[in-house]
Design goal:
The structure is a single chain. Helices cover 49% and strands 0% of the residues. It is built from 5 helices and no strands.
Length: 77
């Protein structure tokens, strides 16, 4: 999970601050993170394809971070 987060912003490490929350809320399981994808978007763009509660659980407020994470989630199997 650490390496995946690091890869989402090309090694800058901006998303690593959310690692403890991912560990606490989702046990660092990709299946749990991937389960946040929505079958029907709630709004336009990639952010609308991910449950907003995921961002709330991670205390993620920056739009850029949300976009990076959402794009990563859409790429998960």
């Amino acid at each position: 999970m650490w390496d995946w987060l690091l890869s989402l912003d090309k090694g800058k490490g901006g998303l690593l601050q959310y690692f403890p929350r991912i560990q606490m809320e989702f046990d660092c399981e990709f299946a749990q993170i991937a389960a946040s994808r929505l079958p029907q978007p709630v709004s336009d763009g990639v952010l609308g394809m991910v449950q907003p509660q995921l961002f709330e659980a991670l205390h993620m407020t920056r739009t850029g971070h949300k976009l990076l994470l959402a794009k990563g989630i859409m790429g998960l199997p």
